[in-house]
Specification:
The chain is mainly beta. It is built from 2 helices and 11 strands; from the N terminus they run βββββββββαββα. A 6-stranded mixed beta sheet has the order 1-5-10-9-6-11. Strands 3-4-2-7-8 form a 5-stranded antiparallel beta sheet, with no helix packed on it.
Length: about 170
């Protein structure tokens, strides 16, 4: 069963999209710390309860959909770039998202405990190259389900943009 938590165009800057999955997490502004010890450079989850997503498009609107699932699901071949990370949802289950500097934001609820999160993207290169395009050029699907904590994983790389960020912020730094 799928539950849609958010489905909208996110206006952002610097390609930053943050997920907050615990009331106990403080933002110290250290983005690189969110990627510590990870292989991927797209979804920083080294700090439990906080996820930093690096979108391909630096500025403008990017469609983002967040879904909650009961268990693991297969990923769809339509997505060029796919990574998975683990996180822990805090005791109250209150979660939220925000773009850079709080330009956009919202809230949703998940069951407390460990979750696996898959981030799928297509159009990251178009987003990188067409920052000021009037229409959406990069698209994101975030799927969460209850699961034990595991190391992050890169499942698919199809864009130069994701490849760049995996090398810059990932690679087990």
């Amino acid at each position: 069963m799928v539950r849609v938590l958010m489905d909208e165009v996110v206006e952002t800057d610097y390609g930053q999209f943050d997920l907050w999955l615990s009331d106990d997490v403080e933002d110290d502004g250290d983005i690189e710390a969110t990627f510590a010890g990870q292989v991927n450079g797209v979804a920083g989850a080294a700090i439990p309860g906080r996820i930093y997503l690096n979108l391909g498009r630096r500025s403008g609107g990017s469609p983002v959909r967040i879904e909650a699932h009961d268990g693991v699901i297969p990923y769809d071949a339509e997505w060029e770039d796919v990574v998975e990370v683990s996180t822990v949802v805090g005791g109250q289950g209150n979660c939220g998202w925000t773009s850079w500097a709080g330009e956009n934001g919202g809230e949703f609820v998940l069951a407390p405990g460990p979750h696996r999160m898959r981030v799928s993207a297509r159009g990251r290169d178009a987003g990188d190259e067409n920052e000021f395009a009037d229409e959406a050029v990069d698209f994101y699907l975030i799927q969460l389900w209850p699961a034990p904590v595991e190391p992050d994983a890169i499942l698919r790389v199809g864009s130069k943009n994701a490849s760049y960020w995996h090398e810059a912020w990932g690679s087990n730094r």
